[in-house]
Amino acid sequence: MEKQEAKGLGRRLVFVVYPFQGHINPMLELATILNSKGFSITIVHTEYNSPDHSKHPDFSFVSIPEGLSQTILSSGRDFATTFLAFNNNCEAPFQQYMEKLLEVENPQDRVACVVYDGLMHFAQVVADRVKLPGISLRTSAAATLLAFAVFPHPQEQGYISFQDSVCQAQVPELQTLMLKDLLVSMTEKPTTSLLEMRATVTNATKNASAIIVNTMHFLEEQTLKVVQKYFHAPIFTVGPFHKLAPAASTSLLEEDMSCISWLDKQEPKSVIYVSFGSVASMEEKELLEIAFGLANSEQPFLWVVRPGSVCGSEYVELLPKNFWESAGGRCCTVKWAPQKEVLAHDAVGGFWSHCGWNSILESVCEGVPMLCHPFFGDQGLGARYVCRVWKVGLELEGVLERGKIEKAIRTLMATTEGLEIIQRAKALKEKAELCLSEDGSSYNALNELAQHILSF
Ligand code: UDP
């Protein structure tokens, strides 16, 4: 591959966003990165969870109706059903938009391809129809491509079985990930919608002209080799995007910056930051166990209590007086934090996370060790990577219980076992920095991706 910088001048990329925070962030970051390489950018998004256009004055935005009422979207309907509805409802308006765009195309501003979130698979179908290449973006680990690819028809795969003994087996190609790590989200009986989702996403990805994954090559080296066998298109591991893109906030909720001045007053590496991302929710009982586990750990903590963290609650109104009496002096709560800034702050010594992939990458890049409590989906896989493959975190397994939480926080923040984890987290951060620096794998993959797009 040529070393010279690829410049995408005169070429436009049409991005199609999946409308949830953990997908919007990486997609807009990738768009920013490719815009800095000279490509013009159009962002196609649903009316639901529209990104803030004013934060990206260089992009064109197009809104398409997803046709789902706010009530349905916020009703907690199962993920796969909502996903299928997005794909069914957005296909026709997107096709109309693309046909119109190509009709009036300016030769100085030709559309090079459609870059779509892998979950918006209708975009590949439309790209095929209008004879444009499609690029599938995976905002999660590369291993999830494999999980989707093998599970629609698990029995047809030679070694895949749901039997427990087989699930305990180590898959030699997958570092120390085990088969059951890929099965994390499969332990429950998959619904028809979930199976349909996995199959359609995989089929679209098989038709893609390239696959971009927000990961670093060294993090998933063995897995990537296996993934490449399932998909013929080249895979570009250009992550983590947030380190390559200038920091324009893509938050849907307002970031409460007051926590940064609170962090400024704390001792270096003393604070445990607690956040379960933008979607996970819990019972009131769990919220209370978390609260008292944190309070009893006697460690200072910064806790994101998102509106709706507990169904129907707005913020911290469910926390009792004795919690504030016990922890008030050592805690800061916010509805939404500037997470990347928080993780980069010197006062933060640990991150208790649900293990969303963005959170994992953001933590790895700052060398912050993790306490992992996955809630659903690919978060279990992320936790396995953190705790068993890279060994930069501790898993908080099973039911949340205050004694267990207190012990886990103390182990991470104040024991020799914790110190070893902290040292490995630091070493991982250094490897990530190398990846992003000139001639590192992500740096090179980005240039190769730009060249690849220009070859269309
Ligand atoms: N995030 C944030 N402030 C918060 C909590 C989360 O900015 O208080 C961001 C976080 O930095 C990450 C994204 O929201 O980029 C969450 O994505 P992730 O994949 O970790 O989890 P998801 O929300 O998809 O479950």
Look at the structure and give the mean pLDDT. 89
What top-tier CATH class of the largest domain fits best? Alpha Beta
Which ions and ligands are bound to the chains? uridine-5'-diphosphate
Radius of gyration over C-alpha positions, nearest whole angstrom: 22 Å
Distance between the termini: 16 Å
CATH superfamily caption of the largest domain: Glycogen Phosphorylase B
Approximately how much beta-strand content do the residues carry? 5-15%
- Going by CATH, the architecture of the largest domain would be 3-Layer(aba) Sandwich
The biggest beta sheet is recorded as: 7 strands, parallel
Uncertain spans, ≥5 residues at pLDDT below 50?
154-169
Tell me the CATH topology of the largest domain. Rossmann fold
What does this entry show, briefly?
InterPro entries: UDP_glucos_trans. Belongs to the UDP-glycosyltransferase family. The protein is of the alpha/beta class and 456 residues long.
Structural commentary:
It is built from 19 helices and 13 strands. The protein is an alpha/beta fold and 456 residues long. The protein folds into 2 domains: 265 residues, Glycogen Phosphorylase B (Rossmann fold), CATH 3.40.50.2000; 157 residues, Glycogen Phosphorylase B (Rossmann fold, 3-Layer(aba) Sandwich). A 7-stranded parallel sheet has the order 3-2-1-4-5-6-7, sandwiched between helices. Strands 10-9-8-11-12-13 form a 6-stranded parallel sheet, with helices on both faces. α12 runs parallel beside α17. The relative contact order is 0.12. About 4% of the residues have low confidence. It comes from Morella rubra. Keywords: Transferase. It holds the Pfam family UDPGT. Belongs to the UDP-glycosyltransferase family.
